[in-house]
Structure formats: C-alpha cells, structure tokens
Design brief:
- The protein is an alpha+beta fold and about 290 residues long.
- The protein folds into 2 domains: about 100 residues; about 170 residues, Alpha-Beta Plaits, CATH 3.30.70.
- Helices cover about 65% and strands about 15% of the residues.
- It contains 9 helices and 7 strands.
- Strands 2-3-1-6-7 form a 5-stranded mixed sheet, with helices on both faces. The chain has a two-stranded antiparallel ribbon with strand order 4-5.
- The longest helix is centred in the N-terminal third of the chain and has 48 residues.
C-alpha cells in the first residue's frame, strides 16, 4: 500500500479502521454462533441424562431411538466446530494483516519518504517529550540545520539530483548521532537534531563534526562524470536547560540559525542572550 502518497494516509486509516471493525464483528458473530451450538448440544445431553435419572429402565429403552439423533448431533457439532476453527485461523491471519497495515501506517506517518529519517510529526513529539517531566529537563541540545546549496542544486540540475543529495546526506546524519539521540527532516532543506547528555561545548563540537562530514560528500551531477558539487550546513543550537519549554527551545535554536545565516557565513552558532536581545529589538522596530 502506498501510504507515503500525499493525502493517502487519512484514506488508508479509514480503510484499516473499517477492516478492523468488520473483522471484529465477524469474530463476535462466530463466537456467538459457537456458544449457541455448544449450548444446544449441552441441552440435548442434559435431556438424555435427565430421562436416565428419572426412569433408568425407560431411559435405556429409549436409548436406541435417541442414539441416531445423538450421533447426528455429535457429527454436526464436530463439523461446525472444525469450520469454526478454520474461520478463526482465517480471522487470526486477517488481524495479522491489519496489524501489519497499522505498523506500516505508523512508520509512514512518522518517517520522511525521501531520506527514511524521522519527519516533522515525529520530531514535534520527541521535542515535546524533553519537557514531559516539568522542571526536570536533562542536559539536552536542539540543533536546527539548513542545508546550504540544496535549493540551488535543485534549481540548476533538477529535483531528482536534489533528492539524490538528500539520500546521500541521510546516512551521514544517522551515523553522526548516538543511539539515544534523534535526527529528523523537518523541511525541504531543513533538519533537526536532538542531542542528549551534552554540554554547550559538546553540542557545538558535534554540530561542527556533522558539518564537516556533509562538506566531504561529493554530489555527482547528471551527465558530468568528473564534475561534482558539495553542500554545507548552517546550524543553530539551543540548550534545553536554558529554555522554558519546547516551543521556547525551538525558537531559540531558530534565532541562532537565522543569526548565523544573516552573517553570510555558513557555520555553527549557539543561542545566547545577545541573539535573543537583537531579535527582540528587530521585532520591536518592525512593529513600530
């Protein structure tokens, strides 16, 4: 199923929900039918036992007459139970398929189709989780990344070459973070990293290393075997211990990213009070 197609996820969700409801309803009906058959068979046995208890002689004399009916009832019961077992196995398979579809949907809803990295939905949830425990925020850092040169690459050589570049950057980003860290594509040429258990210096050093790795990647141009392009990164960093909320943390990292790009130099910049003050003055001037 093409869950990654634009606008398809809501439709797929409705289909899965409908299939699940239909399957569960069928299971419920089959169980009710099985219970009814079992109760009917048990009632037949109780009648026979009651006759034996009330009048053993008459009960035994009637046994030959009841034997055929009992044999037919047992045979029918066995057939129905075998059919029920088959139908339940089919239902288990259907539910397995639905579970697989749900897992596919879950991954599709939190994964970027081009890079295979987490997407903005997953990033928003992960960012918010940093502040789930109120004031007990750990020493984490948010790094917002702008891939410099990607748009120019797309404009000059086509979207396909830009997509190829993104696919080459994805493993670089993935290998640059620790197991408990996080990376996501949050825009056309924008990525976000969450580093855990880091100081400001650590976060800046990691960002510089990622930037250097990206600049070492050669993007071969179409029909130009010996010509390649390189990309670079602008990175704005904010520390979780300084920010009051996930929104505040994102804003600080965004301001740092804007500041480093406004300077005309691609590089890494950590948010500071001075950056925040300049942004406030700029906002006030525009409002006035």
């Amino acid at each position: 199923m093409k869950f990654h197609l634009s606008g398809f996820a809501p439709i797929a969700t409705d289909v899965i929900r409908t299939d699940a409801a239909r399957t569960i309803s069928a299971v419920n009906q089959r169980l009710n039918n099985s219970i009814a058959r079992t109760e009917a068979f048990a009632a037949l046995l109780r009648q026979f036992i009651a006759r034996l208890e009330n009048d053993p002689v008459a009960g035994m004399s009637d046994f030959s007459a009841d034997a055929g009916r009992m044999r037919d009832a047992v045979a029918a019961f066995e057939r129905e139970e075998r059919a029920f077992a088959v139908s339940m196995n089919e239902t288990v398979a259907e539910l397995g398929g639905i579970a697989s579809d749900i897992e596919t949907m879950r991954k599709a809803s939190t994964r970027d189709a081009t890079t295979g990295l987490a997407n903005r939905v997953a990033f928003s949830a992960r960012l918010a989780a940093l502040y789930d425990n109120g004031d007990a925020v750990g020493p984490a850092a948010l790094a917002l990344v702008k891939v410099e040169g990607l748009r120019d690459l797309s404009d000059s050589h086509g979207a396909a070459i830009a997509e190829k570049a993104l696919k080459k950057l994805a493993p670089v980003f993935r290998k640059s973070v620790k197991k408990n860290d996080f990376v996501a594509r949050i825009g056309t040429d924008e990525f976000a990293f969450i580093f855990h258990d880091v100081s400001t210096d650590n976060a800046e050093a990691i960002a510089q290393r990622i930037r250097a790795c990206v600049e070492a990647v050669q993007i071969t141009l179409p029909n130009r075997t010996f010509t390649s392009k390189t990309l670079s990164l602008s990175i704005g960093i904010a520390m979780a211990l300084i920010a009051s909320s996930s929104t505040d943390l994102f804003t600080q990292a965004e301001l740092a990213l804007h500041a480093v790009r406004a300077g005309g130099n691609r590089g890494v910049l950590v948010f500071s009070a001075a950056i925040g003050s300049r942004a406030t003055k700029t906002y006030t001037r525009h409002v006035a």
